[in-house]
Amino acid sequence: MMQTLANGFGQLESPRWHDGRLWFADWTAGVIHAIDPAGRIEAVVEHRSLPLCFDFLPDGAPVLASGPERALLRLSPDRTLTRYADLSALSPYGSNDIVVDGRGNTYVNNVNFEFAAGPPAGECAPGFVALVSTDGRVRVVADDLAFPNGMAVTADNATLVVAESYRHQLTAFDIAADGSLTNRRVWADVGNHSPDGICLDGEGAAWYADVGDRCCVRVAEGGQVLDRVQLDRGAFACALGGADGATLFVVAARWPGAERFTDHTAWDGTVVSTPAPAPGAGWPGA
Known about the structure:
- The protein is mostly beta strands.
- The protein has a single domain (about 5-275), classed as Neuraminidase, CATH 2.120.10.30.
- About 0% of the residues lie in helices and about 50% in strands.
- It has strands at about 5-10, 10-20, 20-25, 30-35, 40-45, 55, 60-65, 70-75, 80-85, 100, 105-110, 125-130, 140-145, 150-155, 160-165, 170-175, 180-190, 195-200, 205-210, 215-220, 225-230, 235-240, 245-255, 270-275.
- The strands form six sheets. A four-stranded antiparallel beta sheet has the order 1-24-23-22, with no helix packed on it. The protein has a four-stranded antiparallel beta sheet with strand order 2-3-4-5, with no helix packed on it.
- A hairpin with a 5-residue loop joins strand 8 and strand 9.
- Belongs to the SMP-30/CGR1 family.
- Keywords: Hydrolase, Metal-binding, Zinc.
């Protein structure tokens, strides 16, 4: 049974279950919100950035990817933002998704082209994944990614899964002890879907959100479809959480047209939830 938790937002992304609340980013408004089980919504921090993705460090502090500053910013308890890592040497474009693994390493990806100008030509895609180590070092650990979107790390810290929207697949890498990525492979071919935000569950499956087909799909490694949740608007990202970890949260919105892209009310961004067959596992996590 689908339940609407909140609506009336802009383009929503980056849902995260953390400390008993669902956190999510309203990109067009430039605000990160948190909603508790009673439905109370708090605007946690405002930061104008497109994209505006975030995750949580091991100490619980939120860290967000800032396009304008081309950096990762850490949110302090007093609600101030300070620079956590400088990403300016990686790309002139703002970063997209971010995931912090169980060891405190931060992976951040970048589509690495001007989205409004359309996809670049050439066989080799410009997207990449960068690693921000716990010691502050920043380096690219994977390239040739066709619009890297959602990312997730398995519970054993051994595998990073990346949604490649333009290649219509989930791509996996083995994670080495130093955070490097090797053994690139197709984790799941998702047909004509363009996977956006993703999450993993305790049965080894992945959920991915698809904007065009207005759905979230649960797939096994190899691509077998296990479950599907249909929505009335584009699904941008999903997360598992709740009291037992087995609630699927989806952030969804309606495409308002390019001329109203920055009008956050035109998107009618909505947060919905529905029971899931298995609790969440890995990172992003609870």
